[in-house]
Write a structure and sequence with these properties.
Elements lengths: L1 H20 L15 E7 L4 E9 L7 E9 L3 E2 L2 H11 L2 E4 L15 E6 L1 E2 L6 E10 L10 E7 L2 E6 L11 E2 L12 E2 L37 E5 L7 E6 L8 E7 L6 H26 L3
Parallel strand pairs: 11-13
Antiparallel strand pairs: 1-2, 2-8, 3-6, 3-10, 4-8, 5-6, 5-12, 7-8, 9-15, 10-14, 13-14
């Protein structure tokens, strides 16, 4: 096992050394990662909200790419058609791990995962951000109405250096396992609205970041394990990303959605039927008075 590991390191150092000779340094210094900070906020009110992702870091001589892995509960959804339109209009880059129903209520829906590729902010070096729209689903009515609290768990942040063929400082490669057997492709929301386009390798959301795929335990000194994920939303290739650990991000962000009141069902139904009958009577009277038979 040790011989195989040393051979892997030598193979990785060869292309890295070549790229450094060309003036491209692979991987920031370890101290640079201490400057990385991420924030997640929910914007707007009501059923139609936005998730604001911001990643701040110190200036770097490399082009830094950021990918946010966000798990979303069944109580909310993202509209793939809206995301496709926003990609054309604003350049927003989001991948969903499955087709999402826009009509199903919360209790008939499933959780899903979104891959959000952050973009540099104009005029603010060291800031990567994305604003992603999402929507609340209707929940089961209760006997007293009220509000339903929906929690969105803390996302994972992946970083990589553009044009870097292997990442220095963390020589351990951890494969993202394909654990979800019931789904087999990523849907590229950037493409035509009625087509399932680009296929992407499935990403397991429960990676054991302390073990390699060979089963060897990683030392605790490895600060940011290396994982594999789609490079961009535009192709099917995989890149090595650093899974950033130790970020000071809340465990979840929450929103509250209104819930229907069962006790109001009778007056609402009665009022709806009465209004329907009155409108039908008014239309019938108008047609009888002015119509030509």
């Amino acid at each position: 096992m040790l011989i195989l590991y040393l051979s892997f390191i030598l193979l990785c150092l060869i292309p890295c050394g070549a790229s450094q000779k060309d003036g491209v340094v692979c991987g920031p210094a370890p101290a640079w990662f201490e400057s990385v900070d991420m924030s997640v906020d929910i914007l707007k009110t009501g059923f139609h909200r936005e998730l604001l992702y911001e990643v701040h870091h110190d200036p770097a001589p490399h082009v830094i790419k950021a990918l946010v892995i966000q798990r979303l509960p069944s109580g909310v959804y993202m509209d793939q058609y809206q995301l496709a339109s926003l990609r054309e209009d604003t350049g927003l880059q989001v991948l969903l791990d499955s087709a999402v129903s826009l009509e199903d209520p919360a209790h008939l829906s499933s959780a899903f995962t979104a891959l959000v590729y952050l973009s540099p902010s104009d005029g603010l070096p060291g800031l990567l951000q994305a604003v992603v729209p999402f929507h609340g689903r209707y929940h089961r009515p209760s006997s007293s109405g009220g509000w339903e609290r929906v929690s969105i768990e803390r996302p994972r942040l992946l970083l990589r250096v553009e044009n870097c063929r292997c990442i220095s400082g963390t020589p351990y490669i951890i494969k993202w396992l394909r654990a979800r057997q019931n789904r087999s492709e990523w849907f590229g929301v950037q493409c035509a609205m009625v087509e399932k386009l680009a296929r992407f390798t499935k990403i397991n959301q429960h990676v054991n970041t302390q073990k390699t795929h060979a089963g060897d335990t990683l030392p605790s000194s490895v600060p940011h394990p290396v994982v594999e994920a789609p490079c961009t939303v535009q192709n099917q290739s995989l890149c090595s990303w650093l899974d950033i650990q130790g970020l000071q991000v809340p465990d979840s962000v929450t929103l509250e959605l209104p819930v229907g009141d069962f006790s109001l069902m009778s007056p609402v139904c009665a009022g709806t039927i009465l209004a329907t009958l009155l409108c039908c009577a008014a239309l019938f009277r108008t047609i009888w008075k002015h119509g030509m038979f």
